[in-house]
Specification:
By secondary structure, this protein is an alpha/beta fold. The chain has one domain (about 5-185): Rossmann fold (3-Layer(aba) Sandwich). About 40% of the residues lie in helices and about 15% in strands. It contains 8 helices and 6 strands. It has helices at about 15-30, 50-55, 60-70, 90-95, 120-135, 150, 165-180, 185-190; strands spanning about 5-10, 35, 75-80, 110-115, 140, 145. Strands 1, 2, 3, 4, 5 and 6 form a 6-stranded parallel β-sheet that branches. β1, α1 (about 15-30) and β2 (about 35) form a beta-alpha-beta unit. α1 crosses α7. The structure holds flavin mononucleotide. Flavin mononucleotide binds near residues 17, 80, 81 and 116. Flavin mononucleotide binds near residues 15, 16, 17 and 81.
Length: about 200
């Protein structure tokens, strides 16, 4: 069974992205994945600073986060948009996970986002995709962005839009993500020739 680590780039109490993530986790489980949801705010990570690292080493919680990731094949990330990019909370966690010997290899990620803006945070996905690719993560092309009008469910014809349709789409993306990472299609996965499905 494919194992997916699910996290959001927001620590806000009433976070839209956390709500979206919670829904997507249900979809991934329905599609057959074993999902571990985590909250980045449960990990005490100082803002990355090389001098701090030289003095104190990698924080215990960064090691804990990295070990968790190492035990999962897939990453499901709900990413809020801050000034056209993704959040400092998420970048800091990714930076620490790359220390000291690089990011865990052979990972596949699915990205989703929610924002009050018209584009649903899609720019945060684009910027995150660049960094994840640099870290050796294969980001699947299927993604999902939820703008505010669709969160209210008034984004168009009731037969075509609204929360039910969005929930179906999230489920669809998740089942594709699960299908892709459990397949033995090395050409598509492309990230680790020695990959064998967990
Ligand atoms: C510093 C800051 C910058 C933001 N920049 C954007 C932006 O560029 N595009 C956008 O759609 N929303 C932007 N927002 C609004 C966030 O998308 C909104 O607060 C969203 O609810 C955050 O995600 P969350 O609900 O999961 O915490 C910004 C919010 C903050 C605090």
């Amino acid at each position: 069974m494919i194992k997916i680590l699910a996290l959001s780039g927001s620590s806000r109490r009433d976070s839209l992205n956390q709500k979206l993530l919670d829904r997507a986790v249900l979809g991934a489980r329905e599609a057959g994945a074993e999902v571990t949801p985590i909250r980045l705010s449960d990990f005490a990570l100082p803002i990355y600073d090389a001098d701090w690292e030289a003095e104190h080493g990698v924080p215990e919680d960064a090691e804990r986060l990295k070990a968790l990731l190492a035990g999962h094949r897939g990453l499901l990330i709900a990413t809020p948009e801050h000034n056209g990019g993704y959040t400092a909370l998420l970048k800091n966690a990714l930076d620490w996970m790359s220390r000291p010997n690089g990011f865990p290899s052979g990972k596949v990620a699915a990205l989703i986002s929610a924002s009050p803006g018209l584009l649903g945070g899609v720019k945060s996905q684009l910027s995150l995709q660049i960094v994840l690719t640099k870290l050796g993560v294969h980001v699947i092309p299927d993604s999902f962005a939820l703008p505010e009008r669709r969160q209210r469910g008034d984004g168009g014809s009731p037969h075509r839009r609204g929360p039910d349709r969005d929930a179906r789409q999230i489920r669809w993306i998740q089942s594709r993500a699960v299908g892709r990472v459990t397949s033995d299609d090395r050409h598509y996965l492309g990230v680790d020739a020695k990959f064998s499905p967990r």
